[in-house]
Amino acid sequence: MRFAGFRTAVAVVTGFGLVAGQFAAGQAQAAACVSPAREAFAIQKLKSELMVVGLDCQLQDKYNAFVTKFQKYLQDGDTRLNSYFRSTYGRSGQVQHDSYNTELANEQSREGLKSGTIFCMQRTGMFDEVAVLETASDLANYAEAKDILQIASFETCGTSERETGKARASSRRRAARRTSKA
């Protein structure tokens, strides 16, 4: 009978250990699950927002300074987005990427217009804030921490249901074409 209490204690400790282990595994997976696309999307939304601010608030010189300073990271991010859109949408990847960039800028501009004159007062300081940043990760982390509109929703480490459906449909079309040619 004395062992019953001991068994219960062992079971509780083991249960906590399993839960803690699962939590740690989840944390490790999340840490290992940093997608290059996620960083690229964050940088793109920042670049687009700063472009809108530069144009709407007559700060093109500050926007140009941002682009010049971070040109390498902006180009690298654009290359990663090209890869993401190509792998997700196939041949229409470039069209989808261009559409995303246009829609993002349009939506960010509409949000700015809705804000009225306060938009420039709220956003012009972003140029000074990003001026002290140094790396692509700095830019992405800054963009994620700021309240910047992002029109895309995507899975960073897996394929979303929507993307899976598109991929399946695309595979079926390719298979049908191969079958009809045979």
Please give the largest β-sheet: none
**C-alpha end-to-end distance:** 75 Å
Unreliable runs = 6-32, 158-182
Beta-strand share of residues = under 5%
The coarse overall form would be globular
Helix segment tally? 9
- Helix amount: over 70%
Order of helices and strands: HHHHHHHHH
Number of strands: 0
Tell me the Rg in angstroms: 23 Å
Class of secondary structure makeup = mainly alpha
Question: What's the mean pLDDT score?
Answer: 75
Counted up, domains total 2
Task: Show the helix and strand layout.
Elements: H1 2-32, H2 36-56, H3 60-69, H4 71-89, H5 93-115, H6 118-123, H7 125-131, H8 136-145, H9 161-181
Any descriptors?
mainly alpha; 2 domains; 81% helix; globular; disordered C terminus
Entry summary:
With 182 residues, the protein is mainly alpha-helical.
Explain what the structure shows.
Helices cover 81% and strands 0% of the residues. It is mainly α and 182 residues long. Helix 2 crosses helix 5 and helix 4 (71-89) crosses helix 5 (93-115). The longest helix is centred in the first third of the chain and has 31 residues, at 2-32. The chain is globular and about 40 Å long. The N and C termini lie far apart (75 Å).
